[in-house]
Amino acid sequence: MKNFFTTSIRSIKQTGTIRPSSRHLVHDMMKNISFEGKQIYVEFGTGDGCMTEAILSGMSEDSTLLSFELNDDFYHFANEKFAGDPRVRVIKENALNFDSKEYLAEGEEVDYIVSSLPLTLLKQREVLTLLIKVKERLKPGGLFIQYQYSLGKLNELKRVFQDVSIDYTILNIPPAFVYTCSKSDG
Q: Of 41, 83, 105, 159, which residue is most buried, by most CB within 10 angstroms?
């Protein structure tokens, strides 16, 4: 893969950042995930694969990870990087289509969705559509974990999810807010 900075600058409206996530941000994104038993994970924005690696390191051998990436360089890099792991499928597709029958069976629910998407760069209706689809596909008790560099989309998250908690990761460039949204049981 070309340099992360070069790839990001060339497609900043798609990536929303110029640096990979720090290990501190990755930790904060993973800390509420219970890696127990067979589970389905979905990732929006594979990037350089740092979140992907963290998910794979915790998940069981019979779990599945679907990771969506639109950027050509990041997609090809991740496809090569994770080619030897049958638990992960890197998909060159818009995250809005994660619920397609090509990726998830009808009615199939997901345990965790981890997102690096720059929501502030998406159109308002795309954000709302994505969040509604995420909530519909999460299992009761499932989590949607999203980081952002501002609180700009907090109201949208609260509009869709009843339970939204916020953490702040200062040891990241730039510092980031981590939203953990849970789908209530039932």
A: 41
